Amino acid sequence: MAGYRKKNADGPNSEDKALDLFAEMMIEKIESIRKDWKKPWFTEGALQWPKNLSGREYNGMNAFMLLLHCEKEGYKIPRFCTFDCVQRLNNPGKDGKELPRVSVLRGEKSFPVMLTTFTCIHKETKEKIKYEDYKKLSDDEKKEYNVYPNMKVFRVFNVAQTNLQEARPELWKKLEEENVRPAIEGGEHFSFAPVDTMIKDNLWICPITPKHQDSAYYSITKNEIIVPEKEQFKSGESFYGTLFHEMTHSTGAESVLDRFKPTSFGSPEYAREELVAELGSALVAQRYGMTKHIKEDSCAYLKGWLDELKESPQFIKTTLLDVKKAASLITQRVDKIAQELEQHIGEEQEVAPKEKVYYSSVVYLQSIDDTSQLDELKDKGDYEGLLTLAKEYYDGNGINEQYTYSSPTNNKGDDLLIEDKNFAVVYNGSVGGTYEVMLKFTEQEVRDHIRRYGVDLAGEIIKEVAKDMAAEQFSAMAQQKTPAFEMPNGDVLYVEYNRESDTLDVGQAANAGIIVQHRFPYDHNVELDANLQKVNEKLNETEEYREVLQEAEYSGGMRR
């Protein structure tokens, strides 16, 4: 590969060296696929998405290279740390107790990861501000600044290159458990619900149309993905891998990432777009535990990819940056759908009240708070100590009505670090590093709270419990006798509780139920009897019944 490195006047810098390494690794991977195009991009079912030791995910570009690095070196846990991170594990805890030292093993070599930073300079005053502060400015204020991207290279070690397993066995065990990837069902029966929902409900950036035919493609002119039906593929993984390839293509549309340029079939630009689609689909498939093989149509470009890589490592930089953007767009959309599906399933599951536990947020610590002590305990793997310290932040208040959930983890990136009978601690490394201390309550305790304080300040989860209570009370009453009102004109109006609309529905009886004529919001701050009394009063105040009442009085009295 001599001759393809682009050197500056002072010799290659850290970015040049990293790109050289990335290019060499990609050349090695593509050459192995060229010898056997049925080999997958990544070893089947091997690794989850790479993260740093704190749990923050690496971006698509770094993630791809770290996966190749793990595969090449045989690392089983895709967690990485800088030398400084390793040293921080040796800081004494709050109790001053020193644990065995964590260190990088002798002779181990680091691996580069790239991080884009931004320098923000005012156009007139030349004052510099932090990028985080720049993002908070209004659109007009942002126009007053020049923003310059800078690529920085950091060196990281895999946890297997340290003595973490011996020095922090509890933390090592946790990392092993987190990396256990559940086996997925192979064959044509394997289904991935978030993507199936995306197709069915048209939730992608363009329509995805499965058809019983032989080719998969993205139409630029129609902005539509056409793919064979899943049953036509040898396995579900093959179907989703092909679909991810076309979805990556679709992100290049002018209205999305604007990646497409005027190209002809077989041109270098067309070949590069095929590599973006291949790497993007491989990365997305890996994230969701699937194996991605090279698309057979893409095999024709293998030699062209190798030639470009050998000529200039900048090719891999620009390509991986496009892969990063495309893969992020896909995974964000899929993750959002997956989260909504999980929430829906959780709401439908029937759990006995005595077994149900709710998690109420009582402390939320974010970047503006001093969480250094918690960080140290987490980095050391001392979760018992972390739980003890977290409890000290609790002020003794009861249920936080607005922020009570049926699960301790409710956002993408949430990680339940530890819990006991009464408390749980959740960490999220994807939003600057936040800690949430949660107090646990049984459903009976939540119900008692609703009876005592109502739901005026409650969030959705507690309101759902209140609806369950109303439905149960109404069902118990209806088993004895269906509530009904006899109006002044002699009509009988029946009442039902509608959980979906959270209302008391009133109307005349019919074979299929009642014909709803009136609907009144249910007041969870009072019992069912009081709600029925309010409904009766409101019905008698309505114009139609007042008119009937006046007519009855005029003709000599009310009918009973």
Topology:
Blueprint: H1 14-35, E1 51-52, H2 60-73, E2 79-81, H3 83-88, E3 111-122, E4 128-129, H4 131-135, H5 139-142, E5 145-158, H6 164-167, H7 169-178, H8 193-200, E6 208-211, E7 217-219, E8 224-228, H9 236-250, H10 268-287, H11 302-311, H12 314-348, E9 357-365, H13 372-380, H14 383-391, E10 404-405, E11 414-419, E12 423-428, E13 434-442, H15 443-453, H16 460-480, E14 484-486, E15 492-498, E16 503-510, E17 513-521, H17 528-541, H18 543-554
Parallel strand pairs: 1-2, 6-8
Antiparallel strand pairs: 2-5, 3-4, 3-5, 7-8, 9-10, 9-13, 11-12, 12-13, 14-15, 15-16, 16-17
Helix pairs in contact: 1-11, 1-12, 8-12, 9-10, 9-12, 10-12, 13-14, 15-16
Question: What tags apply to this protein structure?
Answer:
4 domains; 560 residues; single chain; DUF1738 domain-containing protein; ArdC_N; five-stranded mixed sheet; 41% helix; alpha+beta; coiled coil
Structure, described:
Residues 21-157 form the N-terminal domain. Residues 212-316 form the Polyvalent protein metallopeptidase domain. InterPro entries: ArdC_N, MPTase-PolyVal. Keywords: Coiled coil. The protein has four domains: 46-180, no CATH class; 185-349, no CATH class; 357-450, no CATH class; 478-554, no CATH class. It has 18 helices and 17 strands. The protein has helices at residues 14-35, 60-73, 83-88, 131-135, 139-142, 164-167, 169-178, 193-200, 236-250, 268-287, 302-311, 314-348, 372-380, 383-391, 443-453, 460-480, 528-541, 543-554, and strands at 51-52, 79-81, 111-122, 128-129, 145-158, 208-211, 217-219, 224-228, 357-365, 404-405, 414-419, 423-428, 434-442, 484-486, 492-498, 503-510, 513-521. The strands form four sheets. Strands 1-2-5-3-4 form a five-stranded mixed β-sheet. A five-stranded antiparallel β-sheet has the order 10-9-13-12-11. Helix 8 (193-200) crosses helix 12, helix 10 (268-287) packs parallel to helix 12 (314-348) and helix 15 (443-453) packs across helix 16 (460-480). It is globular, with a radius of gyration of 31 Å. The termini are far apart.
